[in-house]
């Protein structure tokens, strides 16, 4: 009876399909790009990946200086069958192209002021330098010699960068100020500038700010 029932279902075309493992060949335009499968780095450039029946596999393609790529392949009944091959044409990371790696981000730099300048001159020049780079000053207290810009934010395809400058008096004799260029990233596009918990220190700075510390040293420093 069981054999007859199976034959009857087969004739009607209603016999359920039997899933089997699927193999996908994943390749990237960058031959040294890492291929990470379910959190494990398994190869570079090209890799054949097996997707067991009734399972899903997560694949990430990564290389420094390039955008990140991620795809999940599922081999389950009722879901789209995985492709036999998939090619990832990797594009340059626009956030990295717009920035430079630096040891000047997120560090207090002490600048000893030239003896030719008094506190009023220093404050005036400092404000001039700041406005050369930033559009808005959030706090400016001449009495305590403290200045902080508002965040300047820029969004990229896979990242959001926010930057600000902080200036404060370090000591009065010799007259010394601390200048800090704060550079942070979120790792996602269109992050709100107010989402502090999503931002982290970045060891890079956008190119338009790369000379701000040296400008302070040149225009205020004791040369």
Describe the structure.
The chain is of the alpha+beta class. The strands form four sheets. Strands 9, 10, 11, 12, 13, 14 and 15 form a seven-stranded antiparallel β-sheet that branches. Strands 3-2-5-6 form a four-stranded antiparallel β-sheet, with no helix packed on it. It has a three-stranded mixed β-sheet with strand order 4-1-7, with no helix packed on it. The protein has two domains: 2-92, Sandwich (Immunoglobulin-like), CATH 2.60.40; 99-220, Alpha-D-Glucose-1,6-Bisphosphate, Chain A, domain 4. The model is unreliable at 5-16 (pLDDT under 50). The radius of gyration is 28 Å and the shape is elongated. The chain is built from four helices and 16 strands. α3 (119-133) runs antiparallel to α4 (212-220). It starts with a helix and ends with a helix.
Q: What secondary-structure arrangement, pairings included, does this model have?
A:
Layout (H helix, E strand, L loop, with lengths): L1 H11 L9 E7 L5 E4 L2 E5 L1 E6 L3 E8 L6 E7 L9 E4 L5 H4 L1 E3 L6 E5 L6 H15 L3 E5 L4 E4 L2 E4 L4 E13 L2 E11 L14 E2 L2 E3 L5 H9 L3
Parallel strand pairs: 1-7
Antiparallel strand pairs: 1-4, 2-3, 2-5, 5-6, 8-16, 9-14, 10-11, 11-13, 12-13, 13-14, 14-15
Helix pairs in contact: 3-4
